[in-house]
Write a structure and sequence with these properties.
The complex is a heterodimer of chains A (192) and B (109). Chain A has 2 domains: 134 residues, Heat Shock Protein 90 (2-Layer Sandwich); 52 residues, no CATH class. In chain A, strand 4 and strand 5 form a beta hairpin. Chain A is built from 6 helices and 5 strands; from the N terminus they run βααββααββαα. By secondary structure, chain A is an alpha+beta fold. The longest helix of chain A has 25 residues. Chain B contains 4 helices and 4 strands. In chain B, strands 1-2-3-4 form a 4-stranded mixed beta sheet. In chain B, strand 2, helix 1 and strand 3 form a beta-alpha-beta unit. Chain B starts with a strand and ends in a 5-residue tail after the last helix. The chains are: A alpha+beta (192), B alpha/beta (109). The structure holds adenosine-5'-triphosphate and magnesium ion.
Chain lengths: 192, 109
């Protein structure tokens, strides 16, 4: 399922909750886990907050948020036309902040990096900043049931290869024999 | 976001409810700091996050700032009852490293 949404809003902190709710609603059709939803909400909130308080500081401007879905890959691009970042690498370091030490922890980028699968920052002083983050939303099925008959992009490896109508048993056996091989190899190393 | 306070002896518990982000950070800071200012004898600050459904690094900033205030008056800070997603954030940001042990010895407070 592919989808795209673009949202523009004023750089007001009351729009943070709105922005992260939109992102959560956008990925909801993929049936994400509670954790994935929270991760996306938090990461989007970080980027939007940064655009508002650092990008525009006391000025007012527009923040734009572009959300896309390609299959199960979710991407959020949050952009401001604010002051920009002089040294991106330094800004992304955990605990680094140009804000008031009593208010900011300097953890925003670290949170985005940890809660998403990819994080990319582009910025030019005086022109603005664009933060792009992506996350692969997992499939819920934990066990392979029906293997080949599922629509899965990633059927368990055994299923993809074995021709059985009941692939899971095949998988179980494969795992067993792979485990044995691995064990044998380990034994070899230990003895050799 | 809603804030409720509970003072017990030298311990001040801040019970928060709702979503904590930059939008409510200032209000939260001044409300807590006001209480701490009024109650000079408070030596233990407890954040009860049971009903906090969302928090981002703006919340971490609030907690860290209050942690410093408490440290400066020779007191301690604890965080209790955080939900899973909030706990993940607290862990990542290292705030737990500063407050967790205090959180565990809650019964002694
Ligand atoms: N959109 C932006 N425009 C300009 N500067 C930015 C932007 N985003 C981040 N920065 C700079 O990068 C620094 C680090 O950002 P980060 O989000 O990691 O920490 P913080 O916002 O300072 O603190 P916290 O997120 O913990 O409240 C900021 O202090 C700021 O100097
Ligand atoms: Mg930030």
């Amino acid at each position: 399922m592919d989808n795209m949404i673009r949202l523009e809003f004023m750089s007001l902190t009351q729009n943070e909750a709105f922005a992260r709710s939109v992102a959560a609603a956008f990925i909801a059709p993929l049936d994400p886990t509670v954790e994935e939803l929270a991760d996306v909400r938090t990461a989007v909130s970080e980027a939007v907050t940064n655009a508002i308080i650092h990008g525009y500081r006391r000025r007012r401007g527009m923040v734009s948020m572009l959300l896309t879905l390609k299959g199960r890959l979710f991407t959020a691009r949050i952009e401001d036309k604010g002051c920009g970042i002089e040294d991106i690498e330094l800004a992304m370091r955990p605990f680094y902040t140009t804000g008031n030490r009593d208010e900011r922890s300097g953890m925003g980028f670290a949170v985005m990096a940890a809660f998403m699968d990819g994080l990319h920052v582009e910025s030019k002083v005086g022109e603005g900043t664009a933060v792009t983050m992506e996350k692969l939303i997992s499939r819920r099925e934990e066990e392979c049931e029906g293997g080949a008959e599922r629509e899965s992009l990633e059927p368990c490896e055994g299923c993809a290869e074995c021709e059985s109508r009941e692939p899971c048993e095949g998988c179980a056996e494969r795992e067993k024999s792979e485990g044995l091989e691995a064990g044998a190899a380990f034994g070899k190393i230990e003895n050799g | 976001m809603e804030i409720a306070f509970e003072v017990k002896g030298r311990s001040l518990t801040v019970k928060l409810r709702g979503e904590i982000d930059q939008h409510c950070a200032r209000e939260l800071r001044s409300a807590i700091d006001g209480r701490l200012h009024e109650n000079r004898e408070v030596k233990r600050l407890v954040f009860d996050l049971e009903r906090v459904s969302f928090m981002d690094s703006s919340g971490i900033g609030v907690i860290l700032g209050r942690y410093r205030l408490m440290r400066d008056r020779g007191g301690e800070t604890a965080i209790v009852n955080a939900q899973k997603n909030v706990e993940k954030l607290l862990r990542l940001s290292g705030v737990y490293g500063l407050t967790e042990s205090a959180g565990r010895s809650r019964a002694n407070g």
